[in-house]
């Protein structure tokens, strides 16, 4: 049985849809990987979710037009860094185009040599298992090969801004 549909796209207003989506609070992540020249690439993403415990799978998505799409599509591994409440400045820094996003950011290297940001609540080093183009994004499914956790207050994105989960 197929669960996909060939129905025509709806006529939902894009701005209204975006506003409705903004009411769903999400965690904030920085996805990191390495370029062919040995430098690092990272970006802010709030589209992160667990998929399976056995095998351990997670997903995230990236706009098909993103400059980083060829890198993330072609690399074998990436790290998903789950940001803590005190790391909103890092989320903002990694969301800006055209600058050295790693400037002033402390990190260590994962077992495959990718950046694990210091102070994160958790991180997942993933094998780039599969990709699914859907709409204007590509869904990346990663098989977790290594992870760690340091429970902290999470950074949350809601209504177009960063919040602490425990803010009034």
TrEMBL record:
**Which branch of life, at top level?**
Bacteria
- Name the Gene3D superfamilies for this protein: Electron Transport, Fmn-binding Protein, Chain A (2.30.110.10)
Molecular function in Gene Ontology:
FMN binding; riboflavin reductase (NADPH) activity
Which spans of this chain does the record mark as coiled coil?
none
Xref: InterPro entries: Flavin_Rdtase-like_dom, NADH-dep_flavin_reductase, Split_barrel_FMN-bd
Record's keyword terms, sorted: Oxidoreductase
Q: Where are the transmembrane segments?
A: none
**Domain Flavin reductase like, first and last residues per copy:** 21-164
Q: Which Pfam families does the entry mention?
A: Flavin_Reduct
Q: Keyword Oxidoreductase: yes or no? A: yes
State the family named in the UniProt similarity comment for this chain.
Answer: Belongs to the non-flavoprotein flavin reductase family.
Name it: Flavin reductase
**Organism, scientific name:** Oxalicibacterium flavum
């Amino acid at each position: 049985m197929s669960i996909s549909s060939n129905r025509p796209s709806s006529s939902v207003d894009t701005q209204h849809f975006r506003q409705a989506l903004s009411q769903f609070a999400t965690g904030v992540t920085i996805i990191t990987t390495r370029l062919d020249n040995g430098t690092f690439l990272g970006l802010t993403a709030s589209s992160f979710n667990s998929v399976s415990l056995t095998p351990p799978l997670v997903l995230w998505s990236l706009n098909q037009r993103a400059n980083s799409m060829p890198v993330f599509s072609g690399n074998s591994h990436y790290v998903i860094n789950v940001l803590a409440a005190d790391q909103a400045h890092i989320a903002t820094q990694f969301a800006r185009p055209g600058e050295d996003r790693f400037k002033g950011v402390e990190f260590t290297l994962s077992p495959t040599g990718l950046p694990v940001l210091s102070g994160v609540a958790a991180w997942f080093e993933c094998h780039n298992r599969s990709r699914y183009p859907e709409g204007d994004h590509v869904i990346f499914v990663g098989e977790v090969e290594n992870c760690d956790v340091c429970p902290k207050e999470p950074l949350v994105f809601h209504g177009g801004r960063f919040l602490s989960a425990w803010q009034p």
